[in-house]
């Protein structure tokens, strides 16, 4: 399956379970894979035959900045649903990480994979 990749997208928002995490927005590192056939775009060279990674990046940043989820799991599920609503992607893999958040750990995070419901 063909994929559209967005790697190391930085988005800022409020997410966390304790009060200290919820006082200030924090930076999240996000990787996305959108499964979608790219053969038509490869032949036509037209963005209309693909999914704009710029559009997806803006959508994700907007969703993160406007959300106030307690868990990364809920944020990931929300973003995937928004991508399905706004694009024709067949499946989405998203990894969301908090950097330097837990003592002596470089990153913590979640990764989910969802296929479009038919």
SSE pattern, N- to C-terminal: EHEHHEHEE
Structural class: alpha+beta
| pLDDT averaged over residues | 94
Give the number of domains.
1
Strand order of the largest sheet: 3-1-2-4-5
Largest sheet: 5 strands, mixed
CATH hierarchy, class = Alpha Beta
The CATH level-2 architecture is identified as 2-Layer Sandwich
Quote the beta fraction. Answer: 35-45%
Low-confidence stretches: none
What's the helical proportion of residues? 25-40%
Number of DSSP E strands: 5
What is the radius of gyration computed over CA atoms, rounded to a whole number of angstroms?
15 Å
Overall spatial form: elongated
CATH superfamily: GTP cyclohydrolase I, C-terminal domain/NADPH-dependent 7-cyano-7-deazaguanine reductase, N-terminal domain
- Looking at the structure, the CATH topology is GTP Cyclohydrolase I, domain 2
> N- to C-terminal separation?
18 Å
Give the number of helices: 4
């Amino acid at each position: 399956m063909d994929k559209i990749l967005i790697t190391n997208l930085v988005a800022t928002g409020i997410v966390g379970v304790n009060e200290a995490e919820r006082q200030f927005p924090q930076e999240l590192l996000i990787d996305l894979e959108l499964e979608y056939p790219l053969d038509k775009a490869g032949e036509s060279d037209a963005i209309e035959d693909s999914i704009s990674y710029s559009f997806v990046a803006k959508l994700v940043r907007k969703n993160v900045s406007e959300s106030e989820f307690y868990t990364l799991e809920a944020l990931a599920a929300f973003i995937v649903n928004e991508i399905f609503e706004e694009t024709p992607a067949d499946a989405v893999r998203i990894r969301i990480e908090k950097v330097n958040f837990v003592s002596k750990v470089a990153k913590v995070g979640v990764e989910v994979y969802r296929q479009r419901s038919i």
